[in-house]
Amino acid sequence: MTMLKEGRPTAPQAVATGHMLPATATGNRALMLEEALIFEIGSTDTTGVDFADAPQVASRLGSLTRTDAIGLPGLSEQETVRHYTRLSRQNYAIDLGLFPLGSCTMKHNPRLNEKVARMPGFADIHPLQPQSTVQGALAVIHELARWLVTLTGMHSVAMSPKAGAHGELCGLLAIRAALEARGDARSVVLVPESAHGTNPATAAFCGYKVEDIPATPDGRVDLEALKARLGADVAAVMITNPNTCGLFERDMKVISDAVHAAGAFVYCDGANFNAIVGRVRPGDLGVDAMHINLHKTFSTPHGGGGPGSGPVVLSAALAPFAPLPFVEKQDDQFILVEEETAQDHHGQTFGRMVAFHGQMGMFTRALTYILSHGADGLRQVAGDAVLNANYILRSLEDVLDAPFGGSGPCMHEALFSDKGLAEGFTTLDIAKGLIDEGFHPMTMYFPLVVHGAMLVEPTETESKVALDQFIMALRSLAERAKAGDEALKGAPYHAPRRRLDETLAARKPVLSWTDPALAVAAE
Amino acid sequence: MRYLPLTDTDRQEMLSVIGAETIDDLFIDVPAEARLSGTIAGLPDHASELAVERHMGALARKNLSAGEAPFFLGAGAYKHHVPASVDHLIQRGEFLTAYTPYQPEIAQGTLQVLFEFQTQVARLLGCDVANASMYDGSTACWEAIGMARRITRRGKALLSSGLHPHYVSVAQTMAKFTGDALVHHAPTLDAATDIDALIAGIDEDTSCVVVQYPDILGRIADLTPLADAAHAAGALLVAVVTEPVALGAIKAPGHMGADIVVGEGQSIGVGLQFGGPYLGLFACKQKYVRQMPGRLCGETVDAAGKRGFVLTLSTREQHIRREKATSNICTNSGLCALAFSIHMTLLGEKGLRELATLNHAMACQAADRLAKVPGVTLLNDSFFNEFTLVLSKDAREVVRNLADRGVLAGVSLGRLFPDASQIGHGLVVAVTETVTPEDIEALAAALEEELA
């Protein structure tokens, strides 16, 4: 199998819409409201807040008083609420419907999590308060850590990484520190072709040379090719399991044993842990390090692109090198081990990855979610996630090519290709058609080992009614794309915007707002 | 199991479509020896919403929250009043439960916010362009050092002694693996910053000088001479701002010649939350934009000619460039950037300046009052809303003892710099608009008793 590099179309084609709606004077369409930029509707002498009068004092700012016009427009509170409410309505979200973005685990975000995170005892405490005043917060970190270690069957966990890619960095830094501690500098990290882009980027960021491992025709790591490449220069193998084709790497334990025998470490990308939580412990498969996206498996909200949280579970071999800080329990007290005390406890740590202690706001949400489900509920989470994905796979494989559908059940995501679509029709057309049908599209053109990939991850929080409606919509689109329905190429028609010109955006980047009057004056 | 909508009937119907007997049959690819037959031992089963809320509430009540006590901590995280509408708006499901805007036709809300955020940040920091946020200030700082290396093709960074020690630690951790040479010393208890020493240290191998403004001791100094010296040697100036409210009162680093300005955005719109999630601010000169890490939102048009926004210049990013990317960052701090942007919109320039003026005035009053306490000396000649007191005894012990009296006094330099015992008597005190005159009196009285 080879990697596909041609990518997807990034500029819209001119296509007749087939139907013309009458224009409105404002550009608004009933509940669909256009909203200008704050720079166009606000002014620098408007504010939505008020403060007590400042006492008169002699300035201590030296000669540094800011006298220029900063250019920050304000809005009244009512205008502010309306601006962001209107903008919010131009977004799709899980709260609106099924969001089957493969590898992203867009599950329901329970609101109890939000309520708990906003308790003043969690939301309003400073990271550098004396430890005696934050025992409850340290207890949360400790309790969540115990869950993560137990669910994964690993030795310990580094809690501070800020997101999945940051967790990858943590794992690879621990691996590199462990290798250096035994005087065994190695230079290469092996990454499967199907890996998330963050994997090779992370390895390169840590100073490693990245080499691809090929995939077998059934969508898994080529074990023989991997074994052949292992050697004294290989530091680690980064594997995603379940992998990005939605398949479990059956040979995981054999791979781990071979990697360990060659003196290297196994990094597992835990982005897909939702498929196996409560059913498989990565520690039993020989994994040395794995990040857990709390914003995927453990339901903390994605927030339009973060914040995430990426704790990394570690094997006994890597645990001594874990980053600072971490929480220990001594008698009835929780202790935050940081620079001040690390030499006594933890002299081999590779250092600190972030200011303070990690994503506490995500820890409270994730722990709330975990306690709600419990061990039995989490096991059912994985079961239902896999059930939903297989239901989609088997309900659509007669109209969409499922390249690995013949090799058995999938895990938590179903993978389709663009094979069989009419000439000139692409995965992008189906994705944009889904927008008109009221769904967020699936992940498209990833993984790279499948042509025109469509990766569908429904998650366990979708009802059968929602799944059936999605299947009906995707079936209809597949049939239209196979029949060569030209109208599909113009989709979406009903979204706040038609297809956007990404080529133009990249060729002439406009990354901040400029007052058109000033721009004209400058010319 | 209230978050699982499938009924057993649903499951049976779906299994029959799939052609499997049980859900367990779907896990057939997992080697039998790795498949767990039942729930993992030693963990409790599911619990009701009420039970979980009770458990978490009990843990929350074991913490002393900032609002419950006279509170003076800063050092990279600041307590400010966040208007109620900010938290209301970020909880709208269309923002809260959206993903990264990879499908721009149905993500214009998030994208327009990011475009507005980028513009607000660039203007606040005095730069041409800003990105759509990083994890936090400390990781943004390291990314700036890496960016300076790529631009200058040099590997030595000079870190000011006034840079937050956690930011220094993060950079030192990463530099061990990238091979960057970092020059750094612990601060001394002087009223003047180390800008002269930094200027003297710049040479032809220097990629950048990294300076915090205001610095960890609260001091502020004109960065222009440092920028000039760096540029004369072909190096860049990286400025770090951990308290962005300050830029409503003091000159922007970008206007003093800084090439890259990074910061911690928590102060505006985001609560303390025990250290995270926060948001990294990252801005630079236009000419360096293609070396920037992180997501960027740009303006474009749609097929009908309407203005719209998309993520752009993604050829810098990991999902396209893989091992050749400028950074491995993927998920960033979108929702915190939204909170920042909403709060900044509510403030506007007028409100920001008023907020900054109030912070500075309260801090001046507190500094003068606390300096009158026997055994306390004010270090700073200049400051914004945070200053350093030199106490007659180790500040770590003082902070702990004052906490026992219900006063959260500040951050001891001993906690921040455990290896620098010579500055252990330093106490960093932050005073924002949330501090009352009564709080200042409470701190003064407690210090007086403790130092007597």
From TrEMBL, chain A:
Its EC number is 1.4.4.2. It catalyses: N(6)-[(R)-lipoyl]-L-lysyl-[glycine-cleavage complex H protein] + glycine + H(+) = N(6)-[(R)-S(8)-aminomethyldihydrolipoyl]-L-lysyl-[glycine-cleavage complex H protein] + CO2. GO terms for cellular component: cytosol; glycine cleavage complex. The glycine cleavage system catalyzes the degradation of glycine. The P protein binds the alpha-amino group of glycine through its pyridoxal phosphate cofactor; CO(2) is released and the remaining methylamine moiety is then transferred to the lipoamide cofactor of the H protein. One of its GO terms (molecular function) is glycine dehydrogenase (decarboxylating) activity. GO terms for biological process: glycine decarboxylation via glycine cleavage system. It comes from Sphingobium fontiphilum. Gene3D superfamilies: 6.20.440.10, Aspartate Aminotransferase, domain 1 (3.90.1150.10), Type I PLP-dependent aspartate aminotransferase-like (Major domain) (3.40.640.10). Keywords: Oxidoreductase, Pyridoxal phosphate. It comes from the Bacteria. Residues 385-482 form the Glycine dehydrogenase C-terminal domain. It holds the Pfam family Aminotran_5. Signal peptide: none annotated. This is glycine dehydrogenase (aminomethyl-transferring). Transmembrane segments: none annotated. Residues 187-303 form the Aminotransferase class V domain.
Automatic annotation (TrEMBL), chain B:
One of its GO terms (biological process) is glycine decarboxylation via glycine cleavage system. Its EC number is 1.4.4.2. It is an enzyme of class 1 (oxidoreductase). InterPro entries: GcvPA, GDC-P_N, PyrdxlP-dep_Trfase, PyrdxlP-dep_Trfase_major, PyrdxlP-dep_Trfase_small. Residues 1-446 form the Glycine cleavage system P-protein N-terminal domain. One of its GO terms (molecular function) is glycine dehydrogenase (decarboxylating) activity. It comes from the Bacteria. Gene3D superfamilies: Aspartate Aminotransferase, domain 1, Type I PLP-dependent aspartate aminotransferase-like (Major domain). The keyword Chaperone does not apply. Keywords: Oxidoreductase. Pfam families: GDC-P. It catalyses: N(6)-[(R)-lipoyl]-L-lysyl-[glycine-cleavage complex H protein] + glycine + H(+) = N(6)-[(R)-S(8)-aminomethyldihydrolipoyl]-L-lysyl-[glycine-cleavage complex H protein] + CO2. The glycine cleavage system is composed of four proteins: P, T, L and H. In this organism, the P 'protein' is a heterodimer of two subunits. Belongs to the GcvP family. N-terminal subunit subfamily. NCBIfam families: PRK00451.1. The glycine cleavage system catalyzes the degradation of glycine. The P protein binds the alpha-amino group of glycine through its pyridoxal phosphate cofactor; CO(2) is released and the remaining methylamine moiety is then transferred to the lipoamide cofactor of the H protein. This is Probable glycine dehydrogenase (decarboxylating) subunit 1. It comes from Sphingobium fontiphilum. The gene is gcvPA.
